[in-house]
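Service request form, structural biology core

Requester: graduate student, group of Dr. S.
Request type: structure prediction, single chain
Budget code: on file
Notes: please return the result as structure tokens.

Sequence provided:
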Amino acid sequence: MSSGTNHAVAAAHMTSRLTALPALALFTLVAACGVTPADSSEPIGAASSAVQGGASETSATFAMGVASRQGGVCTGTLIAPNLVLTARHCVVPPDGKEGVTCNDKFPKSVSASNLGVTSESNLFRARTYHGVKEIITPTESGFCGNDIALLILSDNVPESEAKPAIPVVQFSMGDARISDAITAIGYGITAPSAQDSGLRRSRKDIGILCVPGEARFACKGELENFLDTDQEFITEGWVCSGDSGGGAFDQNSLAKGGTPYVLGTLSRGPQTADRCLAAIYTRTDKHAKMIQDAGIKAASEGGYAAPTWTQAKEVPVEPPAPEPTDTPAACEGEGCPAPEEAPVTKTVTTTSGCAQAPLGTGGSTSFVLIGLALAGAAARRRRAS
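Core staff response, request fulfilled:
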């Protein structure tokens, strides 16, 4: 991102409240889960977003549409057969606000039966929705850093329909496995003034600009004071209304054609009349325990083995194989030196009565703790002009 764009983002931040990108109205819902059409264009919650200038996306079925009975649409990410990651503001009653600050608090979530999830790429023609049986959110209610939610579905999404992505919960965003760019996928509009929502789109090679506490993505210049919590990160723009809750997918893992890593859920961002300037995501690695616990619970209810990402962060590391050594041939004859006497090993008895054995080389497997980044950021209050 250029310094000019940095200044534009900072200027928008200083002169207005962060834009809560309105959720999209969904006028046609043929819902197996009981979600019904709603003649309303109210926002689904306190904030929202879509892929600006993105290309049509039909194959990334792990990026799912989340529809509400109030008529709003968000995006979510399938991370287990019956578990979807999305934004928290997508699961609370609409309040009609378009601006949010970090002083805002989340209200109680809507009933899970008000929500439905689909993997189809065209929301206006979608015929199948999966019902939601439970909503899981952080215990903290402050908006910034807690705009994340998990939806346990009423049934399992077949692998033939969608294969889950992997949430980054066993290591931090600064890990070498994560590249410096993401792909954004969502059902939103392609520009702030566009009226082309409802189709799933994607945009590649969006740069990661600021991840508090991670040296690889140090927050520099104006970005240093842009976030109020280390539970969020900033990328370049290209997302607007309708993509709220959508995942930030690691570019490398997605490009390789395997299972992509999802780094966070889209929360909000500043925008002008014709351009979305940046995107703020809630980090999955900072909500690791909540996500892992939800994964274990969803697996139990869905009747399948819990995903490997629900396991603890200690990863076994196999010790290196010993290098082969040449054994010298046995010496025979008068010219050979006399054999050395074997060393005497003494057992020392301590005053406690315990035997102290000589130190030796252990054969156990070593372990490496891959922890979450714990660098804190002091809470700073955003001021609206």
